[in-house]
Design brief:
The chain is mainly α and 74 residues long. Helix content is 76%, strand content 0%. The chain has 3 helices and no strands.
Length: 74
């Protein structure tokens, strides 16, 4: 019954459960871990990563533009 609940109620793929992540799965299943808070944190991390990538691209563009200006001066 618990396996069915994990799979269908909580959406946990049983083939993804390993010895290493079993304690986390148990904590989620028992309600010890707040999955909503975990999901919110994952979304925040994804937003930070996206913003970082955007900043890195912008920095590369600015660097290229600065190099082009400097090369014109010589």
């Amino acid at each position: 019954m618990e396996l069915l609940r994990l799979r269908y109620q909580l959406g946990i793929k049983l083939e993804g459960i390993t010895e290493e992540n079993a304690p986390v799965v148990r904590a989620i299943a028992s309600g010890e871990l707040n999955t909503d808070a975990m999901r919110d944190n994952v979304l925040r991390i994804q937003n930070v990563l996206n913003a970082s990538e955007s900043l890195a691209r912008e920095a590369a563009n600015l660097s290229s533009a600065a190099e082009a200006l400097l090369s014109q001066r010589h």
